């Protein structure tokens, strides 16, 4: 099918194809084709009555030291926080070069740089790898989604965005080891571990120094998408460009 005017396909660093509008500079993962005029058989978003799209799922393959210790599988709550979920999903798949960081925007090879037993492990800084870097697919930072702030840190295995205050989400995230009610309303919860909590516990057991840095490397050795998104993006994904 023909693309809409102004759009052309572009491949990212992982070989995946997204689409760039050379007129408006918008990007999207969904192919912008010329619509075919015909009678709709079902609602394009909800599908048949009572049918809804499944949430996407992603995975991390974890290495501690020089040993592969297992896989963590996570569901992303795109039905509640679509922009935050799409950011994480895209960084698991790989998103080309960052406009601000000038490095590959992907979680593969990224460390968990902060581990606090009984609380959480934090990762997602793919540029500086120490908690001071990273960026989102929407720009350096993006705003909190209200629905995510209303979700609570009430159990182990939750995915939540790390930040430096309101509306400062980038690429960094954390996984809870236990409930953390003091974070409610301050950090956007966007998913949950559905398989591999034993691997999360292995991360929790890694010794740390006085600054909560692991004394052995804890890396995302591999990552990817298990169940892709079936929803249109809430807003186009900005195309990484030189500043």
Key descriptive features of the protein:
about 240 residues, globular, 3 helices, mainly beta, 3-stranded antiparallel sheet
C-alpha geometry: globular
Largest beta-sheet characterization: 8 strands, antiparallel
Helix and strand composition category? mainly beta
**What are the segments in which pLDDT stays under 50 over at least 5 consecutive residues?**
35-50, 234-240
Q: Between the first and last Cα atoms, what is the distance in angstroms?
A: 34 Å
Approximately how much beta-strand content do the residues carry? 25-35%
* Rg for CA atoms: 18 Å
Helix content, binned percent: 10-25%
Calculate the mean pLDDT score and round it: 85
Order of helices and strands: EEEEEHEEHEEEHE
Arrangement of strands in the largest sheet: 6-7-9-8-10-5-4-11
What is the overall number of helices? 3
Count of strand segments: 11
Note down, in words, how this protein is organized:
This protein is mainly beta. The protein has 3 helices and 11 strands. The longest helix is centred in the middle third of the chain and has 12 residues, at 82-93. The protein starts with 6 loop residues before the first strand and ends in a 16-residue tail after the last strand. Residues 35-50 and 234-240 have low confidence and may be disordered.
Concise summary:
This protein is mainly beta and 243 residues long. It is built from 3 helices and 11 strands, in the order E-E-E-E-E-H-E-E-H-E-E-E-H-E.
What does the secondary structure layout of this molecule look like, with pairings?
Elements lengths: L6 E5 L5 E5 L5 E2 L28 E8 L2 E10 L5 H12 L18 E5 L3 E4 L22 H5 L7 E4 L11 E4 L12 E7 L1 H8 L13 E10 L16
Antiparallel strand pairs: 1-2, 2-3, 4-5, 4-11, 5-10, 6-7, 7-9, 8-9, 8-10
């Amino acid at each position: 099918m023909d693309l809409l005017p102004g759009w052309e396909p572009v491949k990212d660093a992982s070989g995946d194809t997204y689409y760039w509008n050379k007129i408006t500079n918008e990007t999207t993962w969904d192919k912008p084709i010329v619509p075919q005029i015909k009678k709709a058989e079902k609602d394009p978003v909800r599908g048949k009555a009572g049918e809804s799209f499944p949430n996407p799922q992603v995975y991390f393959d974890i290495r501690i030291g020089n040993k592969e210790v297992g896989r963590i599988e996570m569901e992303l709550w795109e039905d509640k926080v679509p922009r935050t979920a799409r950011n994480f999903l895209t960084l698991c798949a790989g998103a080309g070069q960052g406009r601000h960081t000038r490095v590959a925007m992907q979680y593969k090879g990224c460390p968990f740089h902060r581990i606090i037993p009984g609380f959480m492990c934090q990762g997602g800084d793919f540029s500086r790898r120490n908690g001071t870097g990273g960026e989102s697919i929407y720009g350096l930072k993006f705003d909190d989604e209200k629905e995510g702030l209303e979700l609570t840190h009430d159990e182990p295995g939750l995915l939540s965005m790390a930040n430096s205050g309101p509306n400062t989400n980038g690429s960094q995230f954390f996984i809870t080891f236990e409930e953390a009610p003091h974070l409610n309303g301050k950090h956007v919860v966007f998913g949950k571990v559905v398989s591999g909590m034993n691997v999360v516990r292995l991360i929790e057991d890694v010794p740390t120094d006085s600054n909560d840095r692991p004394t052995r490397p804890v890396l995302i050795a591999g990552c990817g998408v298990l169940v892709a998104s079936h929803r249109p993006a809430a807003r186009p994904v900005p195309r990484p460009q030189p500043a």
